[in-house]
Amino acid sequence: MSETVGITRADEGINGVSWTVVGQTYTPKLHTENAMIWHAHIPSGTFVPPHIHPTQDEWICVMDGQLEVECGDDVHKAGPGDTVRMPMGIVHAIYNRSGAVANVVFGVAPSRKLYALFGELDGLTDPEELARISALHEVDFLPPA
Question: Domain named Cupin type-1: which ranges (predicted)?
Fold first, then answer.
């Protein structure tokens, strides 16, 4: 998969794809071997539990709304225009505790197996199955505390 010239429209995902993962809507905007970028609509009260990407750097650009991102022992609050950087191998979790929707753009590099993972997680609600499938795609969720 190599990059192609063109535009992924604001209201579209690549090939019309979007996924619902942990109560959030993810819409892929770019996918190559080198990187993946997706838009996320993150309702208040939703979160991504603590996990590690052992083979990918990840970042979040907040377009509107507020997020709290736990990286290791630190909590970072991010608002519009902020970029959160999460290097590979660092435990991180993402929370929207703001009372309002957050719209953000995520990215990872390299893309590895993340596109396939989101396809398998689409609509899944069982946390144990989510963790099992994620581990097969190089994303390791931590057991509940």
Answer: 5-131
